[in-house]
Specification:
The protein is about 90% helix and about 0% strand. With about 30 residues, the chain is mostly helical. About 0% of the residues are buried. The model has no long low-confidence stretch (mean pLDDT about 75).
Amino acid sequence: MAESISIRDRFPDDKIEQFNYIKQKHHLKSNS
């Protein structure tokens, strides 16, 4: 959770959502 807070300090919320989306997409891709 602390990780997300530090990222939020550095990036705007829209960047956070984009980052999480890319991370999720990459996670799904590597799982299949």
